[in-house]
């Protein structure tokens, strides 16, 4: 038998046992479900016995699995506590936050100075990307994402809701026909999100069932790019009010029509539920909740 301790395989076994799901274990470990399944397979081959039974309710421990799971769970929890203690020994802490470029530029970064003033011993590192992250692989402590709050294997905290509003540059609106109702927006070039769905859905929600050409126009994969295109007078854009507020306040953009489109989506703070929370993380969550509350108020 190999003398090398299969720590990754044992971690995979422990997380599957903790969450009852290969998919959730993969989310916690920051790898693909296939990688977790492969680690489990190698561990079962090494010990010569199955550790789980797949059922309709999820992954259930076998008799062999039940014998070793409690001790392994306790061991990994002790490792996490020990790592947290080592990190806490440093007076200065670094917190890595992942969010989309548009949310970082329009909402988070302008407010971040207040957190630094309150907690000068914590360095916040902002990773602005729309890509799906893996917490462990990418060394990310917490992420801010827009969704419905369903994040398997992760803890989440609702921050604030947002609505889509139609905006344009003042010069573009001055040149074109007046916009008095939603259908009037179709007389202008429409700037699209990456899946070209927002304008169609917004118009349908306001009673226009077959909006002609509502899915045509330049498309952008991030709202910050949409904002810049709208500021340049290239067309009308549907932007989350949270992202467009600074531009509207400064007069660079104006509401084309006072018809916001509420949705069930909101911004959420998400982080691995199985990892012991850093003191810096607790302070950041509390500060972010206060800022979000002020923003919604």
UniProtKB/TrEMBL annotation:
Any GO BP annotation: DNA-templated transcription
Keyword Transcription: yes
Residue ranges of every copy of the HTH lysR-type domain listed in the record: 5-62
Molecular function (Gene Ontology), one example: DNA-binding transcription factor activity
Pfam families: HTH_1, LysR_substrate
Key words of the record: DNA-binding, Transcription, Transcription regulation
InterPro entries: LysR-type_TF_proteobact-type, LysR_HTH_N, LysR_subst-bd, WH-like_DNA-bd_sf, WH_DNA-bd_sf
Similarity comment text for this entry: Belongs to the LysR transcriptional regulatory family.
Protein's recorded name: Transcriptional regulator GcvA
Species, as recorded: Alloalcanivorax xenomutans
